[in-house]
């Protein structure tokens, strides 16, 4: 049972990774979610029984409830693929939302979990409900009508389920491993030119970057991805994860020098991040690592000041770029953000424009080379699609969880809090949101999920861990 519990989330993450590397997205999300919902329920219920000392009758009862909810959700996904027709389509979609929220809430330490995460569960239910409401207006069985169900399930599982059953360190090792593998495969392309590995193209982007101090130029690294921004977000995550693991191994390993392995991974992933030329990744890593290292060397008391300092520094940098004082090219971000803000203010809505491409909403406000682009800001995209109500709910799940972590600094997992601040800033400059199933979206939603879980204390792993009081 323990192996099932561990394998299901890992397989899910690996599948998302390979889905992004192929570029054509032939690996469909629906089979992955079916696997997650059905087999995952068995592993989760069994793990609760073996690790939480529950009686067999209670464990079997939980398993029955889990399976009922899981199979019901699977049925909805299968039916939605063929089309939920009227009459009663709205009621059926509402029932789907209720069943999924029950699925998220049931598990180990139900009362504690619901009590400590009720605000986030409510925010997510409102957020997800808005997109389901928009799906009701779309043609049954179409890809757009199915998208919000798949995206919502993925986001909900990442926020509220996986962090309770897959340890934080296992997640960090997995992220570091995927990132390191991508970087090493990509570095070979500098020596051998772009090449093909099985069905995956490994190569460089047809644009160059200048190496500071040396003045030489290199092609931007794409590695196994079609977009260097994907490598940028993965290497940001991989570098920070390796940094956290380096300290963890240094503090806990009985074998001297073993910390050098994750330390080496910090270096490899840093090189990959640099070569991806992801300036948003540079900034996110600097902020996340800075906050984490302040806690390491100065303690929890300095945590709020560290976050205020680094976030404030980012604000000053943005102001300097906007005023043209720093000589940095914002790549049209301010124009796109301004267009996004104007689109929201000119057409204010409680529930937004729905499941649309945000570029269509900002098109009247931009022209020239930027025409056809999205706002390149996750928060603006959400406010355009889900309106004021959905945007506030999204901010509660992201910024709100960070604020709560700061106020509960004596209990929070500082590593994941720092990680979440990095991702919150990263979303300022990128188009992805948590309500998607790309690699960047899944990584970000998992990080916020681990942050929320660290404040809820409902992980079936940490309840029995001797390391409960010290989150390295």
TrEMBL record:
GO molecular function terms noted in the UniProt entry: ligase activity
Main localization of the protein described in the UniProt heading: membrane
Subcellular location: Membrane
Transmembrane segments: 33-50, 57-78, 90-110, 117-135, 141-161, 170-192, 224-245, 257-275, 281-298, 305-328, 379-400, 412-429, 435-452
Domain of life: Archaea
Keyword set includes Phosphoprotein: no
Membrane topology reported for the UniProt record: Multi-pass membrane protein
Any single GO CC term annotated in Swiss-Prot or TrEMBL for this entry: membrane
Matching Pfam families: Wzy_C
UniProt entry keywords in alphabetical sequence: Ligase, Membrane, Transmembrane, Transmembrane helix
Domain O-antigen ligase-related: 266-395
Classification via PANTHER family: LIPOPOLYSACCHARIDE BIOSYNTHESIS PROTEIN PA4999-RELATED, TEICHURONIC ACID BIOSYNTHESIS PROTEIN TUAE
Protein name, UniProt field: O-antigen ligase like membrane protein
């Amino acid at each position: 049972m323990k192996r099932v519990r561990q394998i299901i989330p890992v397989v899910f993450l690996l599948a998302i990774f390979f889905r992004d590397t192929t570029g054509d997205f032939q690996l469909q999300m629906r089979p992955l979610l079916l696997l997650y919902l059905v087999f995952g329920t068995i592993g989760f219920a069994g793990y609760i029984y073996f690790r939480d000392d529950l009686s067999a009758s209670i464990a079997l009862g939980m398993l029955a409830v889990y399976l009922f909810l899981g199979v019901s959700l699977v049925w909805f996904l299968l039916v939605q693929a063929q089309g939920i027709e009227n009459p009663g389509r709205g009621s059926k979609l509402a029932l789907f939302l209720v069943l999924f929220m029950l699925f998220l809430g049931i598990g180990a330490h139900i009362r504690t979990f619901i009590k400590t995460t009720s605000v986030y569960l409510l925010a997510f239910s409102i957020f997800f409900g808005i997109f389901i409401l928009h799906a009701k207006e779309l043609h049954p069985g179409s890809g757009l009508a199915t998208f919000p169900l798949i995206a919502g399930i993925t986001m909900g599982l990442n926020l509220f389920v996986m962090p309770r059953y897959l340890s934080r360190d296992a997640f960090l090792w997995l992220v570091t491993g995927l990132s390191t593998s991508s970087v090493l495969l990509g570095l070979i392309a500098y020596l051998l030119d772009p090449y093909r590995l099985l069905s995956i193209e490994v190569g460089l982007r047809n644009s160059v970057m200048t190496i500071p101090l040396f003045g030489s130029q290199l092609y931007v690294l794409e590695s196994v991805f079609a977009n260097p921004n994907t490598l940028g977000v993965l290497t940001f995550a991989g570098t920070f994860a390796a940094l956290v693991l380096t300290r963890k191994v240094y503090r806990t390993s009985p074998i001297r020098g073993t910390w050098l392995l994750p330390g080496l991974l910090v270096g490899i992933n840093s090189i990959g991040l640099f070569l991806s030329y992801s300036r948003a990744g540079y900034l996110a890593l600097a902020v996340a690592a800075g906050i984490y290292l302040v806690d390491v060397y100065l303690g929890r008391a300095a945590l709020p000041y560290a976050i205020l300092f680094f976030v404030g520094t980012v604000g000053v940098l943005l102001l300097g770029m906007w005023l043209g004082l720093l000589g940095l090219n914002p790549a049209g971000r301010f124009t796109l953000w301004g267009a996004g803000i104007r689109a929201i203010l000119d057409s204010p809505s409680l529930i937004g424009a729905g499941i649309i491409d945000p570029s269509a909403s900002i098109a009247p406000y931009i022209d020239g080379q930027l025409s056809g682009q999205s706002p390149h800001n996750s928060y603006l995209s959400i406010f355009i699609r889900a309106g004021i109500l959905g945007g506030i709910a999204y901010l509660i799940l992201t910024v709100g969880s960070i604020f709560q972590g700061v106020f509960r600094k004596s209990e929070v997992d500082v590593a994941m809090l720092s990680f979440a601040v990095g991702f919150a800033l990263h979303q300022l400059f990128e188009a992805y949101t948590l309500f998607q199933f790309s690699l960047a979206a899944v990584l970000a939603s998992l990080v916020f999920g681990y942050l929320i879980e660290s404040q809820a204390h409902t992980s079936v792993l940490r309840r029995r861990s001797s390391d409960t009081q010290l989150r390295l």
